[in-house]
Amino acid sequence: MAETCSSLLIVTHSFKKSTAPQELPHIFRLPNEILEEIIRTTARVERDEDRQFLGWQFPEHQHTQMKQIALSCRRFYALCIPYLWRDKEFILPREDDETKIDSRTVQLATDILSRQTHLINNSNNTVDDDGDITKQQRRNKRHFGAFVRSLCRDLTNGPHYDMNNSRLMAELVCNLRALRIDFHPKARAEHYGLKFFVQSCPMLDELYLENCRDTYDDFASLLQYNRPLTSLTLLCCTIKEQTWHQLIELNKKSLKKLLLQRVLIEEDPNKNDNSNTGPSSLSSTIIKNITTASIVPLIPIPHTAYDHLFYNQQLTHLALSDAICYPMLNRIVTGSPQLLKLAIIIKESDPILTTRCILLLAQLRRLRILSLAFRSVHPLSTDYERLPCRAPSQAWTYFAQHMMDLRLIHVSASQLLLTHDFFSTLFNQQQQQQQLSFKKLLSQVMLHHVTHVATPISFDAWTDQQVLDAYNKEIAITQDIMDPWLINNDWQGYFLTYDQAQEKGFRCFEQEDHVCFVKGFEDWCEPSYK
To answer: Deepest of 12, 159, 275, 369, by most Cβ within 10 A of its Cβ?
Structure first.
């Protein structure tokens, strides 16, 4: 079964040329380079980068606006073609939809990508009196697939796959730079076709894969054809142990954006392991591939592998679903001090180590987005247990003093020890910084189960004993009620009880979250069906 695409803009060159003498409009007197920049800027998709953490940031241009510009004249059409085809998405239809496909509105993706169109060379700016392209420019032709820079293939509607179709599509999008494929979760009896795109697209440097298993060495193609990546997103994927280590080396100098969610390592079944008492064997599981009847042992990504990955990696974006401890966070912060966006889960329950984690995060002075959860996570399932953030309130106040560039923060824990000073520091310093440098303010804040500390315990040095004493004293005098937070009128409207949060449509809180703090995040609200 092949992917299909709804009817796309393909202009037939049958416009009649006006015989009446007309003065050339001013816009047609501009060079193609300037016209192209105007068109590109007009149709660019505006994204608030300070509010989003996306593994896939395409399309870059609004297709509807670009199409309207393209239909105005042939010259604009030729200028718009690269942008009309720059970002494409093809969807595999459901099996029961095949008989309902209308050939007039739905076409095979490979058929469309193989069609040819005229291409304007910006170095040749010759136009007719009506702004039409010249005969010389009409002779320059390219197939539509050559314009594609980002490709999204949605194959989740069924476990069907056509390797010949994948091979042909990869050959047609030879200039591809970003590839996303969402596979069906059912395991395959052969490889996933990643090799075709890696082989045919030498400029490929962004990869987004979901439900891709490395049983048949798909990821090894990145090594075979030497394709270092700048951005890698893996969701519910597996990867061979040896391949993982080699990919780390390949991408050590290039990788800037990394998102790993529920990624497991496929252990070598021939690996010599006489004892089954090690941590790897205790946490491993045997997954049977029903399609191939093969046995594949899967384990979480080992800490040694993460340690190798984060060493001097210089990432700017990082998101992990595996819970990490203090030493691993230390490796992340020291190896990528210029992080802009960070989403992690911390599993520390010791007050001293938890405090050290917060102090480490305060070193990321350029951080704009922080999503932080305190959880105990089962590595081979989606089960988890929320943990309290066992750090004294002064740790969070210290954090607020150093986060000048923060635009979004989300902290999920079963308890956060905070004071009024934390909020005044967090917001007042942001306002002062905005007045001095015209930077954006912190507009998105979500904190689960904030617990009020009326008399914070202050200390001069961050010694282990002082941290532990401060936490133990504060935990004994905390208040889990709303009243103490309502003293300050500046933030009264942002403090919510669990019931109030539910009424507003926030479904991300739990009943144990007696008091929450929510500023922004309106797009998280779900309608009530009462």
So the answer is: 369
